[in-house]
Hints:
With 167 residues, chain A is an alpha+beta fold.
Amino acid sequence: xxxxxxxxxVAAALLLASCRQEPSPSAQGGTVQVPVPRAAGNGVxxxxxxxxxxxxxxxxxxxxxxxxETSRRPQESAIPPGTRLRSLKVEGGTATVDLSGEFKAxxxxxxTGESLAQNALRQVLAQFPQVERMVVLVxxxxxxxxxxxxxxxxxxxxxxxxxGGRP
Amino acid sequence: xxxRTCALRRRLPACAAFVCALLATAVPALSGTLxxxxxxxxxxxxxxxxxAQFDGREAYLPLEVLEHAAAxxxxxRREDAAVVTSASGDTAEIAVARFGGRPxxxxxxxRGVLRADAIVRDGVCEIRARLxxxxxxxxxxxxxxxxxxPVRVQARVEEERTTVTVEVAGxxxxxxxxxxxxxxxxxxxxxxxxxxxxxxxxxxxxxxxGLAAPTDAAERVRSLALTGTPRPVTARAEPMPxxxxxxxSPEPPGSAERAAQSPESxxxxxxxxxxxxxxxxxxxxxxxxxxxxPAGAVRITGVTIEKSDPTRAxxxxxxxxxxxxxxxxxxxxxxxxxxxxxxxxxTDARExxxxxxxxxxxRAEQGSRPGTTRLIxxxxxxxxxxxxxxxxxxxxxxxxxxxGSGRSMQDLIxxxxxxxxxxxxxxxxxxxxxxxxxxxxxxxxxxxxRALLQEAGVNVIMTRTGDDDVGLRERPALxxxxxADLFVSIHVDDCPRPNTASGSTAYYHxxxxxxxxxxxxxxxxxxxxxxxxxxxxxxxxxxYTTGLAVLRHSPVPATLIExxxxxxxxxxxxxxxxQFQQVMAQAIVDGIRGYVEGALPEAELxxxxxxxxxxxx
Lengths: 167, 617
């Protein structure tokens, strides 16, 4: 086999790959799902809105930032207003998400509001197969909410095989 | 040249490995991460040309599937998202995934806009409409589903009654569905329940009456007239035999809310539906003839009741293979029904003697579906139960009396926890120009609870008595440190959208049977007096994967009461009222008393519709 044949084989593989689309958002043309609260019956639950990311934007970080940007409309966001992403690191299946201090206000949103925030973060990260758990820091330090314990790694997916189940 | 070729030959394995890795990464189908599954919508298995792509977590459906749920999808200009409009008129924009160039939509998003139940199992992706109404009123049976599904009516005419069975294929009862026949006194019994093919409704009518047949047209809302004139009955009717798919005895009219939705249902298991090839019940005789188990049915070879002590019991069911088990708590009399799918009883006994303070009888009968065996466990009082995961040898049901029950109030130590405090204000709102903090409302009610409990002779420990910030672990730790019996946390809820949620909720931790009983006891009393919607007793699993921190760390039965929503005008006006705070405190104390003394609430509870499943998560 010559170098040319080898290169042709690689090119064929790339071509084949480009013809098929993965189910994960990483191959969906720059669109990710961003969880937002929606009225449902007597209450609120998370729905999702598609967001198109900028070309070349890191998809995982872009998805998280898109979620945080929803906080500009407080009544339509699970995230407290003004929350920014300080840093993001993925290592060994764990995404460490460091948020700005504004996120602490999540404890002032009742158990429903705080759970919507946690589940919104989980839903965003669950779109990326490489993320299995998340650790949430606020201003670089472990965060304790006013209803739930956020300090340990939190699984981003349920074990249930029910499609569309709660994350 | 020779040298270069040899070098390339040496590199060939690495090159091939690189290509294989590239293929495996980029093409999930080739790497085995994707599978094609059949699609079933509204009870109808779609043709082989329509498949869903399933990656183990998410199923992606082609757009053409939507027409089978009376919905439609329109791709946007970039064709990277589709606007889906459901039969109910809901719309949502959903990102598109492409498989072989064909646009697909994720099931997790579709089910929301279609208001459907969805599951991928045994190679089939099934979408069921939600039945939001199955109610007899004004001489008609009213059915309403989130998209059109087929309806079939059968009637069994007997001397003393006509039993009408209505099968709504490809549907599932919606949480909080309106069911019952309270508005029609002619209906002697009524039951609506999920079954393997959909929802089955059974109504006992007087002789001479019947139900009009439905049209074949696909409709989302149907109204079937009760027909005929009641004939007088000379003899008293015997209890109606267990109908297909319904509880062993239909509930009295007005109390037919699905057991799994009721706060009385302590631990409903997920409904395990049969495979897609299970034959539906057919013919008018299906309801009365004992159905034969399908070929390959698992054999139930033994039922053993073990009394550990007066507070616990265990039922062991031996089987020749793994079975699917579903449970329902039935009322009047209180009994637990355990349906074992695709199983036949191979024991001589059909009833087993029981000598236990809270189990009064155990018997087996033909289940509501062909091939299903139903075990009925009659209960003397409300208890906790849990079905352990079936194995190839059988399954086990554990029963316990709630911890700390069966005592007097004077023997009790209760930790009362006013939520938040200090710098942790909790949620807040403005009422009449005054800022209201959750921490003050919870303390006000907690102090009233303390006073009432102390009046009843209970030893009360408060986690805080002033505006102090107490850690989430420290609060329940007080219960352990003081050898307390119960932990009751008091909160006010909030959510991002004002005036969308209303009412009271009692949370318990995960599947803890005792905490669930405590939550149920309290929320029942609150529902009777609060004047707010009751959101029921719920596992804290519906909120967080690890649950609520104070409940998770409590060493004793614990509940967290969310009294109402601070961002709901109606709730807030009540929450700030001293009169309401006293009423709420009294209800909490009454609930604690009911739990401790083992008293069942007197009445059924109507649970307001809310996202998530009440008492079933």
